[in-house]
Every structure is written in structure tokens, then in C-alpha cells.
């Protein structure tokens, strides 16, 4: 079937997506989740038009080659939600902190939950929670301090129909079941707005020394 044909006509079945760890048939079609999409798969996909376009800003992640670049980078991971096995309708991307950022001072101990997005048309399917669940089901995170910067200027309040405080609560609710907690920091971007937040999950194998280093770095102190 041609990729230009309407997805509404492509109902499919979970048998077609049997190689994916999560798959379900919905009223929109077959939705499958790949927890760590390999970089070579992205050229085969079509990015849904609702990804990266909001009324008040345009996401820097709007092209499939950007996802491919993230997936190819050391430690880069992109969990994707696919409709009928080829239309990308949601993603969660994460990576090691870029050089120059505060958290990079602890090297590969720190791991950023960089972005979660679901196309507006499909948010009623609770895809964001399924993406995070699939991504976090990995022993990899027990050696890391995973964190998320909650920057309110990225939030699609219009599409969600939520207030700032409710949207904030919603995002935190995606992460808390996996051991993330809100922690305080004087990092300048977090401090720009009171609704911004910083959440972190300390893996079970992170040493006491590294926990102390992280605690100090939250307030700009670097242990040598």
C-alpha cells in the first residue's frame, strides 16, 4: 500500500507489528511502540504533520534525519510510536547532556530525558505514558542519574486545553511512576520561570559519592 494513501483506510492488525514490544489496535489504526528505534529505520518512516508544530513555537525536532542523528549518537535513544507501522505519531528522545551544559560536568553519569511529544490528533490514546514506560524498562538507567528539564515555554497548552499548573502536573505524572522526583536547583534556565521544574531519578547502582557530586552540582558546585 502506498504511503500517500489515507491512514484512516489502513486498519492493519497487531500481527503486522508483531516484532514490536508493544502493539494495540485502536480506532485510528494499529499503534506500535519501539523503545529504541534503530537509526536505519527512520528513512522508512513518515513524520505525522502534527509533530513539532504548535501555535506559539516550532520545535527544533521536525525532521526524521534529526531523530536519526540522535539515535546514532553515543547513548542516544529515541522511542517511537508508529501508526500502521510507518507513520511516526509520537516520540521520546533522550541523550547525554551536551558539552558546556552544567550537567555534562558529571560526564556520562547524567542522562537527559530530552523531549516527549505526541501529535495532537492521537493524544487521547495515552501514547506519551506508553512511550515513557517502554523507554524506562531498561537496566541501563540503574547506572545513571536520569533527569528532565521542565521548560514551560515548550508546553502545548492550547492543544492540551490545560492551565500551566495542570500541564506541569501532567508531565510530572508521566515520570513519577518510574522513580523521578522533583529536586531543587539554581540552574539559570530552570529559575527563569516559577512553573519550570527539574526532575531526576537516581539509579540503584549510583554510588554515594556520585550522589553527593550531583547534589552539589545542582547548586553549581563541582567536586574535583
Strand content: 15-25%
Question: Major beta sheet, specifics?
Answer: 9 strands, mixed
Between the first and last Cα atoms, what is the distance in angstroms? 59 Å
Low-confidence stretches: 1-11
Tertiary shape: globular
Order of helices and strands: EEEHEEEHEHHEHEH
Total domain modules = 1
Number of helices: 6
CATH topology tier name: Aminopeptidase
Radius of gyration: 18 Å
Q: Identify the CATH homologous superfamily.
A: Gcn5-related N-acetyltransferase (GNAT)
Query: Using DSSP, what is the number of strands?
Result: 9
Helix content: 10-25%
Briefly, what CATH class? Answer: Alpha Beta
Work out the oligomeric state of the chains in this entry: single chain
Tell me what the CATH architecture is: 3-Layer(aba) Sandwich
Query: Class by helix and strand content?
Result: alpha+beta
Mean pLDDT: 88
Amino acid at each position: 500500500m502506498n504511503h500517500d494513501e489515507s491512514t484512516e483506510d489502513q486498519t492493519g492488525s497487531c500481527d503486522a507489528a508483531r516484532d514490536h514490544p508493544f502493539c494495540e489496535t485502536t480506532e485510528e489504526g494499529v499503534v506500535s511502540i519501539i523503545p529504541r528505534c534503530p537509526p536505519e529505520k527512520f528513512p522508512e518512516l513518515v513524520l505525522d504533520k502534527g509533530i513539532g508544530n504548535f501555535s506559539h513555537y516550532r520545535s527544533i525536532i521536525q525532521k526524521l534525519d534529526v531523530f536519526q542523528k540522535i539515535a546514532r549518537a553515543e547513548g542516544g535513544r529515541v522511542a517511537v510510536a508508529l501508526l500502521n507501522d510507518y507513520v511516526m505519531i509520537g516520540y521520546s528522545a533522550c541523550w547525554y547532556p551536551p558539552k558546556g551544559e552544567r550537567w555534562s560536568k558529571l560526564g556520562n553519569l547524567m542522562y537527559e530525558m530530552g523531549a516527549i511529544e505526541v501529535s495532537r490528533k492521537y493524544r487521547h490514546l495515552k501514547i506519551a505514558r506508553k512511550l515513557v514506560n517502554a523507554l524506562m524498562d531498561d537496566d541501563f538507567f540503574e547506572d545513571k542519574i536520569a533527569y528532565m528539564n521542565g521548560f514551560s515555554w515548550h508546553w502545548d497548552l492550547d492543544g492540551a486545553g490545560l492551565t500551566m499548573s495542570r500541564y506541569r502536573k501532567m508531565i510530572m505524572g508521566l515520570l513519577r511512576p518510574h522513580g523521578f522526583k522533583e529536586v531543587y536547583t539554581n540552574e539559570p534556565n530552570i529559575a527563569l520561570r516559577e512553573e519550570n521544574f527539574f526532575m531526576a531519578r537516581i539509579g540503584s547502582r549510583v554510588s554515594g559519592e556520585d550522589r553527593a557530586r550531583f547534589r552539589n552540582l545542582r547548586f553549581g558546585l563541582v567536586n574535583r
